[in-house]
Design goal:
Rossmann fold, two-stranded antiparallel ribbon, 192 residues, seven-stranded mixed β-sheet, single chain
Length: 192
Amino acid sequence: MSVTVPRLLGISGSIRKESTNTAILNTLADTLGAKASLTVFSLNDIPLYNSDLEGDALPQPVRALKAAIAACDGLILATPEYNHGMSGVLKNALDWASRPAFASPLKHKPALLMTSSQGYVGGARAHAQMQETLASTLSRVVARPQIVIAGVAQKVVDGRLVDEATLKFCGEAIDDLLTEIRLLQRAAATVR
């Protein structure tokens, strides 16, 4: 039996050039070694959600997003907190990806959530909002202590997450995501 390396897809809720969330995802991708691959998907080209464009009129960047989600084994979503919620960029992408309702590529997809902020609660309110949104898409949010990164600007230096405690906590969370993926794969294999 061959073992395949789990394919993770990271989505940053910030399209800013110096995004700390994108830096966190890129750093984590470099730390995984052989246990998983992590590709970071950019939301720069995703248009505003418009249900008139579903079906055959679906914009190509949205097709690419949905295909990337469908092809991965699990998601890592990282967002800043804006006005007590996740970024509009991420919410917009999730709205596109959640279609068609109850049959989208998000359905049953294992997901790990991360938030960050300069404030001392690290985006906890955005985390709660993201969890609620993903529950409505039937995604499988990994049940574990929240990853909320407070004081993020001091923990990301020169485009790299450098805070050892945060790196360790994120690594443990990714291990939990990989465990969830393996459990789902085993369950699917027994059904066949």
